[in-house]
């Protein structure tokens, strides 16, 4: 035989607890959703444009630095590629964020695409030239040693 059901006060308490839980969870969700929407769609354009162009100049400098680092490598393709990729940092670690940062600057977006193309062309160049150039560099280093001018 079943006992008596919940009293009116128990039912009211249960409903109040569910309502409080719903308000807390709903409020938390609403606040976080508003924060995300503000960050994604309402960036201040002037600040973004300044940061965008400065970061773009940093990417260009990093590609030049990486090309120089790879050119100094004498141990073959893998070493040249590793030197190239290491020299791209820290600027290229922030590359993914630049699409959003530069979205309101058409000139910067076009420049960003060109810098991306330059980076991958330089990387391809490092891969294709490294084996032959590394062999030539090692040969010249041996000649320098023979001539008494080596490092």
Pick out its properties.
151 residues, mainly alpha, 2 domains, 0% strand
Number of strands: 0
The total number of structural domains is 2
The Cα radius of gyration reads 30 Å
Mean pLDDT level: 85
What kind of sheet is the major sheet? none
What general outline do the C-alpha atoms trace?
A: elongated
H-E string: HHHHH
Briefly note the structural class of the backbone: mainly alpha
Helix content: over 70%
Strand content: under 5%
Number of helices: 5
Distance N terminus to C terminus? Answer: 98 Å
Structure, described:
It is a single chain. The chain is mostly helical and 151 residues long. It has 2 domains: 7-42; 44-147. The chain has 5 helices and no strands. The longest helix is centred in the last third of the chain and has 42 residues, at 106-147. The radius of gyration is 30 Å and the shape is elongated. The model has no long low-confidence stretch (mean pLDDT 85).
Helices, strands, pairings?
Elements (H helix, E strand, L loop, with lengths): L7 H34 L3 H27 L5 H11 L7 H7 L4 H42 L4
Helix pairs in contact: 2-3, 2-5, 3-5
Summarize the structure.
The protein is mainly α.
